Amino acid sequence: MTSVVKFFLIGGPLLLIILIAIAGFAYSRILYLNLPIPQSLALFAVVLPIITGISMQGIYGLIQRASQNEQYQITVPFVVVISFQLIYETVVATLALTYIIPPSSLHCGLEDRWAKLFHAKNGEAIRKIQNAFNCCGLHSVKDRAFPFPGQQPSSCAETLHRANSCFGPWRQSEQTQAGLLFLVAILVFVVKAISIINLLTSSNWKRSTIRRIIKRITNSSGNEDEDPEDNRASNRRLIEDNAAEGPYRDNPENSTTVIVEDRGIHDQTPRVLPLTLTENLWRG
């Protein structure tokens, strides 16, 4: 059993379970902290390792057939699934990357999300953010902090004895969760790429492919190099060999064989004819 097969049987499922756990953790933090990362992106990252696990079973089957010297075939549905998954991984990684860099581009998303929570009087959501990072307010301890202020500024800093605003750690958490989603997509892509490369560089597959290529090249070159003059010479040698081995008789008891030379223009080769045909030729 090769090391790659062992990896598929042992390391592959374990790695996929870890990736699902990482994506699930990032999804839960996005929900809990009301981060401006689309929930659909996190769900796509959670489903991605599952899809990879299904396709890896097909890859393992191809590797197993190749190891048994069976004919290597890539079906159209398999190519479509692999192509779709590669596009899927690229989209998830690209979208996750937009919530990591540059940090200045994250300002608007965080500002809009906090403003929506404040105008909706969603004190529970803001309280979770403040408690998670031990902070008060967005840009300052009195900037739309919970408890919501009336005519007076919020008393969050004085009541809870906090001196830091939430924007910095909240943005860092957004980058962290997006980084986890990006990591999941990249690792899935790497696993898929290694699987395909190993499949295409399998020793059995390479030997069978090289044999087919050499055979095709040899046949094509043989047909191109074949000369009509060589064919005629080969035919003459066959006729002469047959004549040397013994005469041809239609009726061995009543017939004899006469070698008649045909003095044609195109072919000077002696021909062997039965006696009856030879007599007809002389009489004619």
UniProtKB/TrEMBL annotation:
Question: Where found in the cell?
Answer: Membrane
Membrane topology reported for the UniProt record? Multi-pass membrane protein
Task: Pull one GO CC term from this UniProt entry.
Answer: membrane
| Pfam families linked to this entry | Tetraspanin
Give UniProt keywords alphabetically.
Membrane, Transmembrane, Transmembrane helix
Read off the SUPFAM superfamilies from this record.
Tetraspanin (SSF48652)
Decide whether keyword Transmembrane helix is in the record.
yes
Q: Which InterPro entries match?
A: Tetraspanin/Peripherin, Tetraspanin_EC2_sf
Tell me what this protein is called: Tetraspanin Tsp3
Q: Which organism is it from?
A: Amylocarpus encephaloides
